[in-house]
Design brief:
The protein is an alpha+beta fold and 205 residues long. The chain is 28% helix and 25% strand. It has 2 domains: 38 residues; 147 residues, no CATH class. The strands form 2 sheets. A 6-stranded antiparallel beta sheet has the order 1-2-3-4-8-7, covered by helices on one side. The protein has a 4-stranded antiparallel beta sheet with strand order 6-5-9-10. It is globular and about 35 Å long.
């Protein structure tokens, strides 16, 4: 009877061991799944209140982001070399300036900053005309997240206005800083051709 009971006991112990192993294996699979499905850092940032719109800065056609009826918190301009100027409307922090980190989905780009004075201080980064990240910005389908040092991140929705403006900047259609403002249209969420300078209309007036 004892000889019969011993094999049975071994079978039961082996079954318990397999059950315990299966339990831990299941736990390990769940842990791996949790890691794989975790959102990338920055994807859970809450979108800032506001919308993209066209506007003017020092007689320059620009696009801006901010709440309706309020000053913009971010803007994109174009310089004489057809570079995009990415501008966070904020005073420069004390000490050395940090970089501007731009995150769009899994893509990111760090750009050096310079501070601008005047009535509307800004932290400005330059995205060169030949920078591959320009295509990422134009084709953005996920939030555009701006990080500067320890400041609160700014998460903005993508907009077709960015691609329209960048295209006109690349073609030299946007007037340089200090250039003529005649005929520049500034309409919130303007159609594709609303940012261009309407020189003919200005001459007619």
């Amino acid at each position: 009877m004892i000889r019969f009971a011993l094999p049975v006991a071994f079978v039961l112990l082996a079954g318990c061991a397999r059950s315990e192993e299966a339990r831990y294996t299941q736990f390990d699979n769940n842990a791996t799944l949790s890691v794989n499905t975790a959102l990338p850092e920055g994807d859970d940032e809450e979108l800032a209140i506001g919308a993209w719109r066209t506007g003017l800065q020092a007689a320059q056609a620009v696009i801006e982001f901010g709440p309706a009826g309020a000053a913009p918190v971010y803007s994109i301009s174009c310089d004489g070399r057809r570079n995009l100027l990415l501008q966070r409307h904020s005073a420069a922090p004390p000490g050395d300036l940090p970089q501007m980190l731009i995150q769009i989905g899994s893509e990111n780009r760090r750009l050096a900053l310079v501070g601008t004075g005047g009535a509307t201080p800004m932290l400005r980064a330059t995205l060169p005309a030949n920078d591959p990240f320009r295509a990422v910005l134009i084709g953005a389908a996920s939030p555009i997240i701006i990080r500067i040092g320890d400041a609160e991140p700014l998460a903005m929705p993508p907009s077709p206005l960015i691609g329209t403006y960048a295209g006109q900047c690349a073609e030299g259609a946007a007037p340089p800083p200090g250039g003529p403002a005649n005929g520049v249209v500034a309409v919130e969420e303007a159609p594709a051709n609303a940012i261009a300078v309407n020189g003919a209309a200005a001459n007619a007036n």
